[in-house]
Specification:
Blueprint: H1 3-18, H2 23-35, E1 39-42, H3 49-58, E2 64-68, H4 76-79, E3 80-85, E4 90-95, E5 102-106, H5 113-116, H6 120-125, E6 127-130, E7 133-136, E8 142-147, H7 160-164, E9 168-171, H8 177-192, H9 195-207, H10 213-223, H11 230-244, E10 257-259, H12 263-279, H13 287-298, E11 303-304, H14 306-310, H15 315-325
Parallel strand pairs: 1-8, 1-9, 2-5, 5-8
Antiparallel strand pairs: 3-4, 6-7, 10-11
């Protein structure tokens, strides 16, 4: 095992010990980190959405910023703006909170589209344009945006162009009773500052310490060596094609899909499947790797027809049907 992989696995193990009952979320965050992608996270209040990204930031020697999205937020509150300096009679660019390695866009759907769109260029091209000049963002740049599915008053739907910039759209649910007990014990230990609070951190610090940004960039290069067979690559492509031409595999889906996934989805699914295999300790991709990430990669890239929405059909239902219809290699 390479040194960079050993550090990533240790980081994942530590996050699992702190984000109780959300192993899938932790794994998907690691995938996004290694795929140079962004995450849209949806869940009810109190499910450790904010804690997850903050805990991740504490383990990496990187800059972390949080942006609380509200209806009165302006695009310049995110990107920064040119400020007039009277002493020098000139304008000077002051960076906004988006200039960080890890950015938490908390409750992103509480701001209107013009504010949400301020992130578009940053997420897609790792740069911000202000006053005719381009300002580059760091090589390690991850946006984790959260949204609350319960409250609808004072919220705005994310534009399709904005949604497509997210590598994955992850949905999390309430924990089980057993997990709830573990959460209680962890919180009590942290509040009391007892030995149990520090054990996992001590182990992580002893093994790794805080990760350097170069460790993550090195792991990204390692992932490129993961092999995907031609047959599996064709299977992956056909899964995407099935969202655009569903009648080819299942005539019942034709009236349920208005628009299918773009080529960006193909690239995202390829990256995520390879990283999933890498995290599982394999140097080759299997169909299970594709299946484990396909819902998170596609659920925000399939636009449903009015008929499908009226019948209560979800994007996840469509993906399930596609997986049943497209034959395995």
């Amino acid at each position: 095992m390479s040194e960079s992989k050993e550090k990533i696995i240790a980081l994942q193990k530590y996050l699992d010990s702190k984000i109780i009952g959300q192993k899938d979320l932790v794994k998907k965050m690691m995938i996004a980190l290694l795929a140079d992608g962004h995450v849209l996270l949806e869940g009810a209040p109190g499910l450790a959405k904010t804690k997850a990204i903050k805990t991740l930031s504490e383990c990496i020697k990187a800059r972390f910023n949080r942006i609380q999205f509200t209806p009165d937020l302006l695009p310049s509150d995110i990107t920064g703006s040119d400020i007039y300096i009277a002493e020098r009679c000139c304008f000077e660019f002051r960076q906004g909170p988006v200039f960080a390695n890890l950015v938490l866009a908390d409750e992103i759907n509480r701001a209107p589209a013009k504010v949400q769109s301020a992130l578009l260029e940053a997420m897609a091209e790792h740069q911000v344009s202000v006053g005719g000049k381009q300002y580059h963002l760091p090589d390690l740049f991850l946006v984790l945006a959260t949204q609350n599915p319960i409250e609808q008053e004072g919220t705005y739907n994310l534009p399709e162009a904005q949604l497509d910039r997210f590598l994955m759209y992850i949905k999390i649910d309430q924990p089980s009773a057993e997990t709830e007990h573990k959460i209680l014990k962890l919180v009590r230990a942290e509040e009391m500052g007892t030995k149990e609070q520090d054990e996992s951190w001590k182990e992580f610090s002893k093994t790794v310490g805080k990760l350097e940004i170069e460790d993550i960039l090195k792991a990204r290069r390692d992932v490129l060596s993961i092999h995907m067979s031609e047959q599996l690559e064709e299977y992956l492509v056909q899964l995407i094609i099935a969202t655009r031409k569903p009648e080819k595999y299942d005539s019942g889906l034709k009236n349920n899909i208005l628009y299918g996934a773009s080529p960006r989805a193909t690239i995202a699914l390829d990256k995520c499947a390879k990283i999933n295999a890498w995290l599982e300790g394999r140097d080759f991709v299997t169909p299970d790797d594709i299946h484990s990430v396909i819902y998170d990669v596609l659920r925000h890239r399939i636009i449903l027809s009015f008929e499908a929405e009226a019948e209560g059909i979800t994007a996840d239902n469509i993906i399930t049907s596609i997986l049943k219809s497209v034959p395995l290699p």
